[in-house]
Amino acid sequence: xxxxxxxxxxxxxxxxxxxxxxxxxxxxxxxxxxxxxxxxxxxxxxxxxxxxxxxxxxxxxxxxxxxxxxxxxxxxxxxxxxxxxxxxxxxxxxxxxxxxxxxxxxxxxxxxxxxxxxxxxxxxxxxxxxxxxxxxxxxxxxxxxxxxxxxxxxxxxxxxxxxxxxxxxxxxxxxxxxxxxxxxxxxxxxxxxxxxxxxxxxxxxxxxxxxxxxxxxxxxxxxxxxxxxxxxxxxxxxxxxxxx
Length: 244
Description:
alpha+beta; 6-stranded antiparallel beta sheet; two-stranded antiparallel sheet
């Protein structure tokens, strides 16, 4: 092949390489190399995004660039992992429930103060859409707190956080005075298949999630659950992909 014939061929090859490299924006590039499991099917939950309608098709790169989806969470869910939560704050921003008044023992010495209840152990803390500090505590497993939310309603910390960060228009609303509020948001179910950033995804359904936060009570988050579903939410709702 002559040099004059070779030049157009090289120019075309360079254009193709440039097109491939720019197909996925830099903002969508992952922070780690592809790992085993990046080609596994994955179900995601995207909270509070009204632009995602049933039947819509898009790629993981689209979800990252346009819908706030965290690629690290997509990779974790695709590998069957549960993303770890950050350590709760060392300084508890909410007071522990007041201990019983110290009583005097028969000898006249004050009795030891009651030890703090493990129910009030902090699980996570974050800022809500209305700029309030949300405290999620362990709870009693029956009537309030994260143990109940996790075991009875099958929701993750990320799902509760995303509900309070991306509520539907008009929410939160005051539940009871003086300071108990309800957050409600639409959660889209997205199924993806393929490989890495080039997975193809489709919105296949949705559910509304409700969370109740009592800012006037040390308990903080009282409960969270899927509206219209008795008991446990579907497993995919746990996979909050825009929970950061």
